[in-house]
Amino acid sequence: MSLVLNFEKSKSLKSVPFPELIETVQAFLESQQLEITRRDGDDDKWIIEASKRVSWPFKSRQEVIVTVSADGRVTVVEKLDVGKRLFGGDITQEDVITDTLFKKLKELQASHAEGAQT
What we know:
The protein has helices spanning 18-31, 85-88, 98-117, and strands at 4-12, 34-41, 45-52, 62-69, 73-81. The protein is α+β, with helices and mostly antiparallel strands. Strand 2 (34-41) and strand 3 form a beta hairpin. The protein is globular, with a radius of gyration of 16 Å.
């Protein structure tokens, strides 16, 4: 039995430069022990996909797709396969990284706002 939960969140971070958003998202995903499986984009939009590392033939239980647009819009879609956990344990905040990523981006935005005021 498999149950996949999808979490989606989007926020506009116009005060943060586009290249810095991309670098911050990638660094965050890697810090969460996620493997970057796709990093593709152009001057208008980047898509970064990552998943928990697993050994073949197993499928990752966590996948994250982040879209970063040049206008500062960041959208995160996280897929979490909770499967057998429903019978053996709760889903924790550490399992769902979407809110943690946006907290990090909000801190980055605040630091840019402070820099603009000085």
